Amino acid sequence: MAKIIESKTVVGLEIGTSKVVAVVGEVLPDGVVNVLGVGSSPSKGIDRGSITDLNAVIKSIQRAVEAAESIADCQIISVTLAITGDHIQSLNESGFVPIADGEVTQEEIDSAMHTASSVKIGEGLSLLHIIPQEYAVDKQMNIKDPLGLQGVRLKAQAHLIACHQDWLNNLKKAVERCKLKVEKIVYSGVASGCSVLTEDEKDLGVCLIDFGAGTIDIVVYTNGALRFSKVIPYAGNRVTDDIAYACETSRAEAERVKVNYGSAYNPPSSHAEKRIEVAGIGGRTPRVLSKQQLSIVTAARYEELLRLVREELNQLQYELENKQMKFELIAGVVITGGGAQIEDLKQCAEKVFGTPVRVGHPLNITGLTDYVSKPQYSTVVGLLQYNHNDEDESPLNDQDGPEEGFFTTTWSGFKKFINKVKSEF
């Protein structure tokens, strides 16, 4: 009989546009994840983070979870869940509190961070992550941990990430219909960052691009803190559609051609003259073209997608410099996700960004590494590592329901605190 997993063992679940993946892992004290089991299933009924067929999604989840249970020899009862989609929104905010006794306490740090997160967000959105950036005590700036420092006023800077409650509820419903409990919900870009980025890269400044089938997740770190996060609702499926249109073939055949012969650069770096036979629709005559001819279609779309990211970075640079904040990506760009495996993507990205680029694989893992040491597993492995590195407050993870727990207790009491602070200033 399979044993029920112990509390120190964590399960990550990613419900993506192309696949559903469940990974069982034991998080060791040093943060290394010992992978015990993994299960994957083709994804049905979800597109770019939005559920289009609930029953189809449930079946995909069940297949992935059952496969992971079989390999890990355990019964999965709860998961840490990834979420993405263009409903994800983020912003940077600051909060101030007086230092009552001349020395910063943990309570005052928490209060300043809550003040920063009390900003009104869009209708239908719920706060998913409150991630500390840095603090200031009076004129002392860029403090990582202000506990015990002396001063009069404490400022906390935070990165806030919100998601649409309806999208989240539907995703949770699909998981709970599989008789699984959702322990935590994590934005996919944050999870991928836990998996593939080093602390040195975060300190120097780095942009992480998680290139999936339906979405591109972007996160930017500078000076060790998360400054920017966004979801672009276009990704690898756009390339598949281009091939299907250009070659007059099915999407399934176009996906096969993309995975096996596609290149993000024209001309391709290898076997440019290789002949490719593409099956026609409904018994029509197959089309034959060279790999270089195919790259005319694929390279143009990959470059366009990466230029969308470049535009976001340009806008971020403008906003930070207006606030007299330095914006440098000394560590360059890291690309991960299933789309990162396309041939010559690194070369294409270096052309677009004009900076060093590397393809990111999950780091700090042991156990069944042959299964999960690939870019397409970065998010789901990062969900396990997030549990070890979790430094942010996640209101949605602290409540039993959308209107219970954190929002009905902490916020009601905290409004009184905010009014008291305002009166003192």
Description:
The chain is α/β, with parallel strands linked by helices. It has 12 helices and 21 strands. The chain has helices at 54-72, 106-116, 165-176, 188-196, 199-204, 236-247, 251-261, 291-322, 345-353, 369-372, 378-389, 406-424, and strands at residues 3-4, 9-15, 19-27, 33-42, 46-47, 50-51, 74-75, 78-83, 89-98, 125-137, 140-143, 153-164, 181-187, 206-211, 216-222, 225-232, 275-278, 287-290, 333-336, 357-359, 365-367. Strand 15 (216-222) and strand 16 form a beta hairpin. Helix 6 crosses helix 7 and helix 8 (291-322) runs parallel beside helix 9 (345-353). The radius of gyration is 23 Å and the shape is globular. 44% of the residues are buried. The model is unreliable at 399-425 (pLDDT under 50).
Total E-strand runs: 21
Oligomeric state as shown: single chain
Number of helices: 12
Helical content class:
25-40%
Compact description:
With 425 residues, this protein is of the alpha/beta class. It is built from twelve helices and 21 strands.
Name a few traits of the molecule.
425 residues; alpha/beta; 12 helices; 37% helix
